[in-house]
Every structure is written in C-alpha cells, then in structure tokens.
C-alpha cells in the first residue's frame, strides 16, 4: 500500500513526464515512503523486494498512464534509499533478460532526448553506488554490451 500510494502521489505531481525529478510538493511524501519502507525493510525485506520487482515488470507491459511513471518512481526511491537499492539490485539484474530489455527500450523510446539522458544519468549514478551484487552487475553489463 505504501508503494501504491507513493506512486499515485508521484504521478499526481508530474513524475511521469518529469523523468523522476522530485518537485517541491512531492519531496515530503516520497521521503515518507522511503522512511516507511526503510523501517519495514528490517523485517519484511523479502516482501518489499518482491513488490518492487513486481511493480517494475508490471509497468513495462502496460500502456496505462501511471505505469509509465513506475520506473522513474522506482529510480527515485533507489536514489533516496541505498537500503532499497541494495535490496532489489541483484535480483533486478538477473531479471534483465532480452525480452525485458526490449520492453525497457520500448518503454523509454518515446521520451524526449533530454529526459532520456536524465534517466540514463540516474541509472549510471545508481550503478556507481551499488555495492550489493556489483560483480554480477558488471558481468551483466559486459555480456549485454558485447554478447
């Protein structure tokens, strides 16, 4: 419920077209979402990880408007919480098989160049700050870039 409410708020304040950059009105609410999830992560890390991954995969195959904002929302959560990033990053890398990569490409192909560059910048920043599964992530990047 926390993630769902956070995503709705993110969408209501321009998250879908803003590439995930936080506006003044949204910062306190997304900070609350991060705080609540951080508190819950100590006892419910598996459930949180499962829900984050479910949201990610569900959003890629959906044309619904709030699903377009899901990946930027999840990226913003990861930027604000190293705990959430560490919780989900190893399994996310494992799930990035060719069909999922194609869905991601289709999902972001309609973004204007500056927004796409912003998303890529966030992803690179997160990759540089990920310690959990770093070797797995590096192997994935190398295998994907030069199959």
Explain this structure.
The chain is an all-alpha fold. It is built from eight helices and no strands. The radius of gyration is 15 Å and the shape is globular. It starts with a helix and ends with a helix.
By DSSP, the count of extended strands is: 0
Mean pLDDT: 82
In angstroms, what is the radius of gyration?
15 Å
Distance between the termini: 39 Å
Main β-sheet: number of strands, strand sense, barrel status? none
Total domain modules: 1
> What structural class should be given to the helix and strand makeup?
mainly alpha
Assembly form of the protein? single chain
What is the helical fraction, as a range of percent? over 70%
How big a fraction of the residues is strand? under 5%
Order of helices and strands: HHHHHHHH
């Amino acid at each position: 419920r926390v993630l769902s409410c956070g995503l709705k708020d993110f969408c209501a304040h321009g998250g879908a077209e803003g590439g995930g950059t936080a506006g003044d009105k949204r910062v306190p609410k997304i900070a609350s979402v991060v705080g609540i999830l951080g508190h819950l992560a100590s006892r419910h890390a598996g459930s949180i990880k499962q829900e984050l991954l479910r949201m990610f995969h569900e959003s890629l195959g959906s044309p619904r408007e709030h699903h377009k904002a899901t990946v930027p929302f999840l990226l913003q959560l990861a930027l604000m919480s190293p705990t959430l990033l560490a919780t989900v990053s190893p399994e996310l890398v494992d799930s990035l098989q060719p069909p999922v990569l194609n869905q991601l490409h289709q999902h972001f192909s309609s973004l204007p160049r500056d927004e796409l560059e912003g998303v890529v910048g966030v992803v690179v920043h997160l990759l540089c700050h990920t310690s959990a599964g770093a070797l797995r992530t590096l192997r994935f990047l190398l295998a994907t870039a030069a199959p």
